[in-house]
TrEMBL record:
Residues 5-107 form the Flagellar motor switch protein FliG N-terminal domain. Residues 115-189 form the Flagellar motor switch protein FliG middle domain. It is found in: Bacterial flagellum basal body; Cell membrane. One of its GO terms (biological process) is chemotaxis. It comes from the Bacteria. This is Flagellar motor switch protein FliG. Belongs to the FliG family. It holds the Pfam family FliG_N. InterPro entries: Flg_Motor_Flig (IPR000090), Flg_Motor_Flig_C (IPR023087), FliG_a-hlx (IPR011002), FliG_M (IPR032779), FliG_N (IPR028263). The keyword Glycosyltransferase does not apply.
Length: 335
């Protein structure tokens, strides 16, 4: 009955079946994009009978139970329990659906292991294998491991992550065999997207400045275009809120008032408040007035103005005049 329904249609049926009170509580835990997609599915929902509703609720319950077993003891434990309860075929079906939905990723052992141990374990592997592993980890974890690798390998690994896009599951499984760990896969998918420049940016933003500079200098020599793309993305306009007031004031002295006005036209309230708190009342009033009289502006003009500010921040950081807060644990300060 429900095999022809798309996952989003099942979600819509479930929300309707739960009623508006319970559904509204679920909405609070969804992203804006998820809310939009789910709402569209509900509005476009065709009439369904009681049998379909009951099947959807039953499937949802089974998946919840499966997720509980996975969280308690992992994929293997969940399958053992489910095999006894519903049989092997149904157990594999439930775990396959949930694994794909939750994107249970390979190399899970690395996420739980100490970065030093991991770096020692993988440092002699091929840079492509190391890149694959780091691509599946949280940026901070990847950054810690990357910093512990031999310097001559760091740039090679970074370049391979940046050039990685779609990796076959066969290659991933082979890498897992090399590491001799039994890892859960991501279900029925034959390929999975990993790596890319954005992954590199997140990693380098979480790493210490000296290691970052060393890696980027090597990439600059080998691949100037990649280095330039990474530089452009390393610090985004929204990260201005991470600057100290003193560093932000130094930055704003380098920015033309017209550029600042244009940049603020598309800024969030948090960023605007941060900037307004670090300029004079006279300049604040002038910018607010100019913004009101500007009317609609082109998105690319706003983005260009914001990028001008970002470039100024990066230039000041390179000169050692300001410091951008990095990811990871906070450094101790001497008073």
């Amino acid at each position: 009955m429900t095999e022809n329904l798309m996952p989003k249609e099942k979600a819509a049926i479930l929300m309707v079946a739960l009623g508006k009170d319970f559904s509204s509580k679920i909405y609070k835990h969804l992203t804006d994009d998820e809310i939009e997609q789910l709402t569209l599915s509900i509005t476009g929902l065709r009439a369904f009978d009681k049998e379909t509703r009951d099947e959807v609720i039953s499937e949802f319950y089974d998946l919840c139970v499966t997720q509980k077993y996975i969280s308690e003891g992992g994929i293997d434990y969940a399958r053992d329990v489910l095999v006894k309860a519903v049989g092997g075929d149904r157990a594999d079906e439930l775990i396959g659906k949930l694994s794909a939905a939750l994107q249970v990723r390979p190399f899970d052992f690395v996420r739980r292991a100490d970065p030093t141990q991991v770096s020692n374990f993988i440092q002699n592997e091929h840079p492509q294998t190391i890149a694959l592993i780091l691509s599946y980890l949280e940026p901070e974890k990847s950054a810690n491991i990357l910093a512990l690798l031999p310097e001559e390998n760091q740039a090679k690994v970074v370049e391979r992550i940046a050039n990685m896009s779609v990796v076959s599951m066969e290659y991933i499984r082979e890498a897992e065999k090399i590491l001799e760990y039994k890892i859960s896969s991501i279900g029925q998918e034959e390929n999975t997207s990993v790596g890319g420049v954005d992954t590199i940016v997140e990693m380098l933003n979480a790493i210490d400045r000296s290691t970052e500079k060393s890696i980027l200098d090597k990439i600059e020599m080998d691949n100037p275009e990649l280095a330039d793309e990474i530089h452009r993305k390393m610090f985004v306009f929204e990260d201005i809120v991470k600057l100290t007031d003193v560093d932000l004031q130094k930055t704003l002295k380098e920015i033309d008032n017209d550029v600042l006005t244009m940049a603020l036209k598309g800024a969030s309230e948090e960023i605007a408040e941060k900037i307004f708190a670090n300029i004079s009342k006279r300049l604040h009033d002038m910018i607010v007035e100019n913004m009101e009289y500007m009317g609609p502006v082109r998105v690319r003009d706003v983005e260009q103005a914001q990028q001008t500010i970002v470039n100024a921040i990066r230039k000041l950081e390179d000169a050692g005049e300001i410091e951008i807060a990095r990811g990871g644990a906070e450094e101790e300060l001497i008073v």
